[in-house]
Design brief:
Blueprint lengths: L11 E6 L3 E8 L2 E9 L7 H12 L8 E5 L3 E2 L4 E2 L12 H9 L3 E5 H12 L8 E6 L3 E7 L2 E2 L30 H5 L1 H8 L8 H22 L3 E5 L1 H6 L1 H14 L9 E4 L6 H11 L4
Parallel strand pairs: 1-4, 4-7, 8-11, 11-12
Antiparallel strand pairs: 1-2, 2-3, 5-6, 8-9, 9-10
Helix pairs in contact: 1-2, 3-9, 6-8
Bound molecules: zinc ion (ZN).
Length: about 290
């Protein structure tokens, strides 16, 4: 599947479901026109009800507009069932069918970072590239890959889920059941456990360790998969600022020493807080699922 080209002008309701918050927005003309959010971790079984209420209100003037959802992974069957690692109330949850039934709208679901990769590619930092890695370093850590001009699906639609690359053998326990995953060592949740507070309060040593771990993971993948650009979104990475990106890039280049990979660069997403919502809009509007 290719997602190059202009951003569709049609209206749609975009939903971004993460481990801490879920956001719903009206997207029209390629822009976020209005947005609302709900706390997702505390919402429990009521999360679906909250989402339906927000879709109804934000989409009130566009009754035929479809709904595009970017949901934390993993998922299966093209987004038909979702099991977000940090939202324990949803395991193999039939999100697409439930939202379609409750809202009466056409609904399409994809992974949150896969959605971000679509918008990064269409209107963000990756316009014109054929090969790049999109990442989020936030409450969780995720990724999605565009190679040879295609957003990679993989066997179950979870390709690029870089958060579960082992970066510290025998390290911290991860929500997936393994130890030492990038998500277990460098996510916002991991930093909260480490610092006892908001990840933004992490000291220089902790910040540098996160940059090193992310950088090594990206450098390793660049050598394996032959891309040179990685764009990172998410409150943890963006909150750490320019120093994070320069340290992570240095760490990536320390492990990516082969000619084709040695100029790998880790840079901020160009889309700010709108990336996943615009990606969710593309999930609905591209009509390829
Ligand atoms: Zn894991």
């Amino acid at each position: 599947m290719s997602v190059a080209g202009a951003f569709p002008a049609d209206a749609c309701v975009a939903v971004d479901i993460g481990a801490t918050k879920a956001e719903v927005a009206l997207v029209a003309g390629g822009r976020v026109r209005a947005r609302e959010r709900v706390a997702s971790r505390e919402a429990g079984e009521a999360l679906l009800d909250s989402l339906v209420t927000l879709v109804d209100s934000l989409g009130a003037d566009h009754p035929n507009a479809p709904v595009g959802v970017a949901c934390a992974g993993p998922l299966r069957d093209g987004g038909e069932f979702v099991s977000p690692l940090n939202l324990h109330q949803w395991r193999d949850f039939p999100l697409r069918a439930r939202l379609a039934e409750r809202t009466g709208r056409r609904v399409a679901v994809d992974g949150d970072v896969r959605a971000l990769a679509r918008s990064e590619w269409r209107v963000g930092a990756a316009v014109g590239l054929r090969d790049f890695l999109s990442m989020v370093v936030s409450t969780g850590v995720g990724g999605a890959l565009v190679l040879d001009g295609r957003l990679l699906d993989g066997r179950t639609g979870n390709a690029g889920h870089v958060g579960h690359l082992t970066v510290v053998p025998g390290g911290a326990p991860c929500g997936c059941g393994a130890r030492g995953c990038l998500e277990a060592e460098a996510s916002g949740l991991a930093l909260e456990a480490l610092t006892g507070g908001d990840p933004s309060r992490a000291d220089a040593a902790v910040r540098d360790r996160v940059a090193q771990l992310v950088g090594r993971a990206v450098g390793t993948l660049a050598a394996v998969l032959d891309f040179r650009a990685c764009f990172v979104a998410g409150s943890v990475a963006l909150g750490f600022g320019e120093e994070f990106f320069s340290s992570a890039t240095r760490a990536a280049r320390e492990v990516a020493r082969l000619d084709y990979a040695r100029e790998v660069t880790i840079a901020p997403s160009a889309l700010g807080p709108d990336g996943a919502l615009l990606g969710a809009a593309l999930v609905a509007l591209d009509g390829d699922r």
